[in-house]
């Protein structure tokens, strides 16, 4: 029997390829998701550019093509009893936790969306900590955080910790955080709670401050269209890089928000698979809260737009770069130098955007251009300043919004 792992958020963009990748490596994988991401798409009228199959179809097809079994469970991390039962049933060596609301604009739509994001993410993660404590505190937690937890300070960003000298004394402390949104703030709260669990319960944890992930092909997703992972491009869920590539490929303007000096870390989806596998295979020690900055290259938006534009010109397109009024409140010109050596030291062999942009992103986009919805690709609909007055959903769907609000209130009231 292989080593057991649980992948939480296994229906998502990274979670689904990760579940297959670990299964192919010989791990016995339990995959958990509650389908909330698909509900949030229905609620806002958003849709993946690449069609995605149901979890049932994905798992059945994976078994047929690889002869490996992924055990699927529909569990909400906010339902402690169900989560505890799944962790107890599988008793894994490691749990990889992707299962959160991951969009900064979604978290900034309104008070209700900010509350929903933070309840889902922080309460779900806290439930997980309690489930691990109850089942076996030696389970290695591999948790997806984000580089945006740090924000854009005017000093070098270290990997999780910084040594500070103050009034003649010195200590190594968690690096200060200045997050970009209520979503990114939820990750900071998760990080604090995980750090605390390592201190008081001797947990072993790896908190991965991941940059923006791009690309959609892995050796496993490429086996069949029904094993493909999602590709978001609307202004709520689509990252700037995804949006820029589709804008360039479909003859629309590349939309930089503001001056374009905003710098972020980036990595290929295949490198995410490799980093997480490295983390699982080199577990943190008992009591250790290990923090890695998980990205391979950094770019500002102007550089990113130029790179996409050049690649699109090579393919015969003639994209135009425009600067829109920035809907977010963020620094548009700033210093950025984030350390990211820990994963390279453990053996990561990175892919680079300049080598893979055309094959791993632009070609995928071109194959699905007929599915591009110009409304979703266009102007952003959520502004940081408004705090709740935005018309954000493409199709007003009061039934789903009411259903989601009711379930959030139920979670809050039950605490
Ligand atoms: P995603 O939205 O595609 O996938 C997340 C999955 O988690 C979804 O399938 C969703 O249904 C599930 N989920 C959410 N809340 C849940 C709950 N309470 N119970 C059970 N399942 C739940 O997101 P992704 O892009 O695959 O990101 C995965 C993780 O990596 C997230 O935590 C995200 O914050 C982090 N991350 C992503 C990126 C990126 O560029 N995509 C970068 C840095 C960090
Ligand atoms: N931006 C544009 N044009 C667009 C869309 C975005 O200029 O059409 C700008 C934003 O203003 C921002 C930058 O691009 O300055 C990055 O935005 P993004 O949407 O690409 O990424 P972000 O909101 O930071 O979130 C994404 C993922 C999130 C993950 C994060 C990693 O959605 O889950 O945590 O990247 S990081 O940025 O390192 O925090």
Structure characterization notes:
This protein is α/β, with parallel strands linked by helices. The protein has helices at residues 15-24, 36-44, 55-66, 80-90, 104-107, 111-135, 182-201, 240-249, 269-281, 301-314, 342-345, 353-367, 374-377, 398-413; strands at 4-8, 28-33, 70-74, 94-97, 140-146, 161-166, 169-174, 204-210, 212-214, 254-257, 263-268, 289-294, 297-300, 321-324. Helix 1 (15-24) links the parallel strand 1 (4-8) and strand 2 (28-33). The longest helix has 25 residues, at 111-135. The protein is globular. The structure holds nicotinamide-adenine-dinucleotide and sulfoquinovose-uridine-C1,5'-diphosphate. Sulfoquinovose-uridine-C1,5'-diphosphate (USQ) binds at residues 102-104, 146-148, 211-212, 239-240, 243, 255-257, 262, 264-265, 301, 328, 330.
